[in-house]
C-alpha cells in the first residue's frame, strides 16, 4: 500500500530540509498485509514549490534527488491551494492508495500520521480531518486566531452538517477513491473550507448500486504553531476569504 504525502511549500528555505529529514526519519504507518501481518506503507512525498523567491526552489530540487521525493514546481507563486492541487493530481496519477496533507514547516509532527491514517487503514473511514483542539499538545499563541478559527469552523458546520472542531487544520487524509473525486478551485488558504464542503457533499459508490456519503473521522494532532516573526503567513484577509468559501462551496459545491 502506497502513502502519498502532499506538501505545498513557499519560502521555507530555513526549515524545509529539516522538515523533510524529520518526516523521512519517522517510521511509516503500518497496515495489514498478506495473512494479516502488519507492514509499513510505502511512502512517497509530493513536494510542490509554489514559486518561492528565497532559495527554497533549489532546496526542493536537491530533496527531489531522494527516491521517496517527487519535486513539483510552479514558476510563479499562486498560493497554498494551487500547490496542493498540483500535488494532489500527481499523487492520484501515481495511484497512491491513501493521501495525506502535511505542512512544509515544523508546525505539525509526522509522528501523528499513524493516528491520522488509522481510521482509513482500519477500513472505518474514507477521509480523516485532524484537530489541534481535541487534547493533544499545542503551543499557546494567539487568542483572536482561536476565536476566528472557532467562528469559521462553526459556520462551516452549519452549512456542511458536520460536527468538526477545526476545519483549518492542515492534516487531512483521503482514500484514493475520495481523492479522485476532489476538485480544488481555491488557490490560497480558502482551500481548507473548500475541501470540507466538498467532502460533506461528496457521494461514493455504495452497496447495490446506491451511493453513500463518505465516512469522515476527526483525530487529534499536536501543533507547534509559529509566530509571524517566525514565518507564519496566514492573515486576517485569509479569514475573510474562508468565510466567502464557506458560503460559496456550502451552497454550490
Tell me the layout of helices and strands:
Elements: E1 2-9, H1 13-25, E2 30-32, E3 38-40, E4 42-50, H2 56-63, E5 69-74, H3 80-93, E6 98-101, H4 113-121, E7 127-131, H5 143-160, E8 172-175, H6 176-181, H7 191-201, E9 204-205, E10 211-212, E11 216-220, H8 236-252
Parallel strand pairs: 1-4, 1-6, 4-5, 7-11
Antiparallel strand pairs: 2-3, 6-8, 7-8, 9-10
Helix pairs in contact: 1-2, 5-7, 5-8, 7-8
In short:
The protein is α/β, with parallel strands linked by helices and 253 residues long. Helix content is 38%, strand content 20%.
Task: Describe what this molecule looks like in 3D.
The protein has about 250 residues and is of the alpha/beta class. The protein is about 40% helix and about 20% strand. It is built from eight helices and eleven strands. A hairpin with a 5-residue loop joins strand 2 and strand 3. The protein is globular and about 45 Å long.
Amino acid at each position: 500500500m502506497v502513502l502519498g504525502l502532499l506538501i505545498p511549500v513557499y519560502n521555507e528555505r530555513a526549515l524545509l530540509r529539516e522538515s523533510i529529514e524529520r518526516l523521512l526519519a519517522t517510521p511509516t504507518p503500518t497496515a495489514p498485509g498478506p495473512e494479516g501481518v502488519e507492514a509499513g506503507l510505502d511512502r512517497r512525498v509530493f513536494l510542490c514549490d509554489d514559486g518561492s523567491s528565497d532559495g527554497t526552489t533549489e532546496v526542493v530540487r536537491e530533496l527531489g534527488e531522494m527516491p521517496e521525493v517527487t519535486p513539483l514546481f510552479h514558476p510563479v507563486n499562486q498560493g497554498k491551494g494551487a500547490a496542493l492541487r498540483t500535488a494532489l493530481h500527481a499523487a492520484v496519477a501515481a495511484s497512491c492508495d491513501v493521501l495525506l496533507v502535511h505542512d512544509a514547516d515544523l508546525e505539525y509532527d509526522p509522528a501523528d500520521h499513524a493516528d491520522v491514517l488509522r481510521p482509513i487503514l482500519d477500513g472505518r473511514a474514507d477521509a480523516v480531518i485532524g484537530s489541534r483542539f481535541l487534547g493533544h499538545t499545542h503551543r499557546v499563541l494567539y487568542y483572536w486566531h482561536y476565536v476566528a478559527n472557532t467562528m469559521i469552523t462553526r459556520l462551516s458546520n452549519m452549512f456542511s452538517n458536520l460536527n468538526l472542531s477545526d476545519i483549518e487544520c492542515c492534516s487531512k487524509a483521503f482514500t484514493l477513491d475520495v481523492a479522485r473525486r476532489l476538485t480544488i478551485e481555491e488557490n490560497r488558504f480558502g482551500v481548507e473550507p473548500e475541501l470540507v464542503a466538498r467532502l460533506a457533499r461528496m457521494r461514493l459508490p455504495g452497496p447495490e448500486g446506491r451511493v453513500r456519503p463518505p465516512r469522515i473521522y476527526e483525530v487529534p494532532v499536536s501543533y507547534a504553531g509559529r509566530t509571524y516573526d517566525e514565518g507564519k503567513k496566514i492573515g486576517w484577509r485569509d479569514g475573510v476569504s474562508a468565510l466567502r468559501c464557506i458560503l460559496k462551496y456550502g451552497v454550490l459545491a
